[in-house]
Design brief:
The chain has 2 domains: 2-81 and 266-282, Rossmann fold; 84-264, Rossmann fold. The chain is 45% helix and 15% strand. It is built from 12 helices and 10 strands. The chain has helices at 7-19, 37-47, 58-66, 84-88, 94-99, 121-134, 149-158, 175-178, 195-203, 233-245, 247-264, 267-282; strands at residues 2-5, 24-28, 52-55, 75-77, 108-112, 139-143, 165-169, 183-186, 207-210, 226-228. It has a 6-stranded parallel beta sheet, with helices on both faces. The protein is elongated and about 60 Å long. The two termini are 14 Å apart.
Length: 285
């Protein structure tokens, strides 16, 4: 059995697997096929070598079918999962706060992810600037690296945020930083089912997220977190402020989010789903 992730791996791995009569399972993590007709042609060619196409959210699976890059009968949806035990071990972020000289009492908004245009951390900076006008001791923690690091640093300066924003760069153990956050914010313009969101929920950090891709399937607005329309700075800022000011509400969301991840998005649940899929594909089903 060969299992590929993203179309490039399938493009190169699919043909030799076919020649050797080895079945192929392919997983896609996002919606990519509105960008160019060339990419759609590449995907159609590549997906012909996959016995089964898996989307990490129903939104991702439906996108591929709607763009005619894969036939529906070959598709399945298996959601991402996280190692619950690993992330519940990071309840305290005291060491991270101390290392970054963030006062114990300072409210911290944070995010973890690649610093790329699609993740739209620029929106987070602008929303945080709005929050900081009312909460002068608030800090923003951005964990990750990417092509937008310099641009985002410049924007933070233009917004007058100064030392209130902490860019940590890439962190191999980003989970340790989640415990230092009072609110986790995901501002992406497009997503599949982001692991960083599931990890934050597993740690017990209240979440604010853009209602894109598979996110609404994880976060129920006003039940396990807050959702805002894609690109809406004012709505994001309002949700963040609500979480920081109303700590009872934030704690309620935190408890519900932890329950959701434990019940529906554990790594064990994902592994069992793939195990059943592998058995079916191996049997020619």
């Amino acid at each position: 059995m060969v299992h590929t992730h993203q179309v490039g791996a399938l493009f190169y791995g699919g043909p030799p697997a076919r020649r050797l009569s080895v079945p192929v399972v392919h997983t896609e993590h996002g919606k990519h096929y509105d960008r160019s007709w060339r990419l759609r042609i590449l995907a159609r060619y590549s997906f012909a070598y996959a016995n089964r196409y898996v989307g990490v959210a129903s939104d991702v699976t439906e996108h591929a079918v709607a763009r005619y890059v894969v036939c529906k009968r070959k598709t399945a949806t298996i959601v991402n999962g996280v190692d619950i035990a690993k992330f519940t071990a990071y309840r305290s972020g005291d060491a991270v706060r101390k290392a970054l000289s963030i006062p114990d009492t300072a409210p911290v908004v944070g995010t973890v992810g690649r610093l790329e245009p699609v993740k739209n951390q620029a929106l987070l900076l602008r929303a945080f600037a709005n929050v900081a006008e009312q909460l002068s001791d608030a800090r923003l923690l951005i964990v990750g690296d990417g092509t937008q690091l310099e641009t985002l640093g410049s924007l933070a300066g233009e917004l007058g945020l100064g030392d209130r924003v902490h860019f940590t760069g890439y962190q191999a153990d980003a989970a340790a930083y989640l415990g230092a956050m009072d609110v986790f914010c995901l501002t992406s313009d497009s997503e599949g089912l982001p692991l960083s969101l599931l990890e934050a929920m597993a740690v017990g950090v209240p979440v604010v997220a853009s209602a894109v891709g598979g996110v609404p399937g994880v976060v129920r607005d006003d039940e396990s977190g807050r959702l805002f329309p894609r690109g809406d700075i004012a709505a994001a800022a309002g949700a963040i402020k609500q979480m920081l000011v109303d700590r009872n509400l934030a704690h309620r969301f935190s408890r519900e989010a932890s329950k959701v991840v434990n019940q529906q998005f554990s790594l064990d649940t994902t592994a069992m789903a793939y195990d059943k899929l592998y058995e079916a594909v191996a049997a020619g089903k």
